[in-house]
Design goal:
Belongs to the peroxisomal membrane protein PXMP2/4 family. The protein has 7 helices and 4 strands, in the order ααββαααααββ. It is mainly alpha-helical and about 300 residues long. It folds into 2 domains: about 220 residues, no CATH class; about 45 residues. It has a two-stranded antiparallel sheet. Strands 3-4 form a two-stranded antiparallel sheet. It starts with a helix and ends in a 5-residue tail after the last strand.
Length: about 300
C-alpha cells in the first residue's frame, strides 16, 4: 500500500514539473514564432501554474494508476494454465505457465496499445480540455466549445504519436516506470498542441485562409472571449463604418459605370446617324454622276 502511494506521489511530482516546464518551453516557442495572443506582453505565469496543477492533481495520479491496471487486464496474454496430468480425483489441478516468447510478447504489447489509444486517450484528452478550461475560469458553454473544436484534431495527431511511442513503452519499460515515460513524452506533446492551436488562433492567416495585413491579427473566438463588452461594441462600430464606406464605394462605381454605358450608347447612335446621312449623299452623287457621264461620255451619247 505504501509502495503504491509513494509511486503515485512520485509520478504526480514528476508530472507537475514536466507539465509546468513544458508550458514554459511552449510559451517561449510561441513568442519566437510570433504566435502569442495580441494582449500578451510577458510570460503568462498563471497558465504555467494551471498546467502544473493539472499535472500534479490529475495527470500524475491517473497515469500512475492506469498502467498497472492495464497490465493486470492483459494478464491472460502472459500466462497459460495447463492441467496437471496426475491430479486429485474429483479435482482438477492446473499449473501456471508463463508465456515469454516474442510472439506472445508482441500480442500483449499490441493489445495494450489498442486499449490505451481507444479506451484511455479519448477520455483523458477530453478531461484535459475540461480541466484546463475550468482552471482558466471558462463557463460550461465555452468549455464545451473549446473541447469540440480541439478534440478531433488532437486525437488524430495523438494517434500518430502514441501508437509508436506506446509500443516502445510497453515493450521495453517496466510497469512501474511507464507513467514516467509517458510524462516525459507529454512535454513535447503538449508543446506541439499549444503551438498548433496558437497558430490557428493567432497565426498570420484567418479562418478563410486569406492573408492578413502585416501586423493585423484575425479575431477568433478565443480572442473575442477575452474582450470586454465595450471593446466589442467599439469593434462592431468600426466594422459598420467600414461596411458603409465600402457600400458607398461600390454604389458610386456602379453609377459611374452606368453613366459610361449610357454615354457610349449615345455616341454609337450619333455615329450611326452620321454614317447613314453620309452614305445617302454619296449614293445620290454617284447616281447623279451616272446620269451625267458614263465611261467618260455624256449620258445621252449612243455609240
Amino acid at each position: 500500500m505504501r509502495e503504491g502511494l509513494r509511486r503515485v506521489l512520485r509520478d504526480s511530482c514528476v508530472a507537475a514539473a514536466l507539465y509546468g516546464g513544458g508550458d514554459c518551453i511552449a510559451q517561449q516557442l510561441e513568442r519566437l514564432f510570433q504566435l502569442s495572443s495580441p494582449d500578451k506582453v510577458q510570460h503568462n505565469l498563471g497558465r504555467t501554474i494551471r498546467m502544473t496543477t493539472f499535472g500534479f492533481c490529475v495527470a500524475g495520479p491517473i497515469l500512475s494508476a492506469w498502467y498497472p491496471l492495464l497490465h493486470r487486464i492483459t494478464a491472460s496474454f502472459r500466462t497459460r494454465f495447463k492441467l496437471v496430468q496426475f491430479s486429485i480425483p474429483g479435482w482438477d489441478v492446473y499449473r501456471r505457465h508463463e508465456l515469454d516468447s516474442p510472439r506472445h510478447r508482441m500480442q500483449e504489447v499490441g493489445i495494450k496499445v489498442l486499449f490505451d489509444n481507444l479506451f484511455f486517450q479519448p477520455p483523458f484528452l477530453t478531461l484535459y480540455f475540461v480541466c484546463t478550461g475550468a482552471l482558466e475560469g471558462l463557463g460550461l458553454a465555452e468549455i464545451y466549445d473549446k473541447t469540440t473544436r480541439n478534440f478531433h484534431s488532437a486525437w488524430a495527431y495523438g494517434l500518430l504519436l502514441w501508437l509508436p511511442t506506446q509500443t516502445v513503452n510497453f515493450y521495453f519499460m517496466p510497469v512501474q516506470n511507464q507513467a514516467l515515460f509517458v510524462n516525459v513524452v507529454n512535454v513535447f506533446w503538449k508543446t506541439f498542441l499549444s503551438l498548433l492551436y496558437h497558430a490557428r488562433d493567432y497565426g498570420s492567416r484567418n479562418h478563410t485562409g486569406e492573408t492578413l495585413v502585416q501586423g493585423e491579427i484575425a479575431p477568433t473566438p478565443a480572442m473575442l472571449a477575452r474582450r470586454t463588452t465595450k471593446e466589442l461594441e467599439s469593434e462592431l462600430g468600426r466594422l459598420k463604418e467600414e461596411h458603409a464606406r465600402f457600400t458607398e464605394e461600390i454604389q458610386r462605381r456602379h453609377q459611374d459605370r452606368g453613366r459610361l454605358v449610357v454615354r457610349r450608347g449615345s455616341n454609337r447612335a450619333a455615329g450611326s446617324k452620321v454614317v447613314e446621312d453620309g452614305g445617302g449623299g454619296g449614293g445620290a452623287s454617284d447616281r447623279g454622276g451616272e446620269e451625267q457621264e458614263v465611261d467618260g461620255r455624256p449620258a445621252g451619247y449612243l455609240k
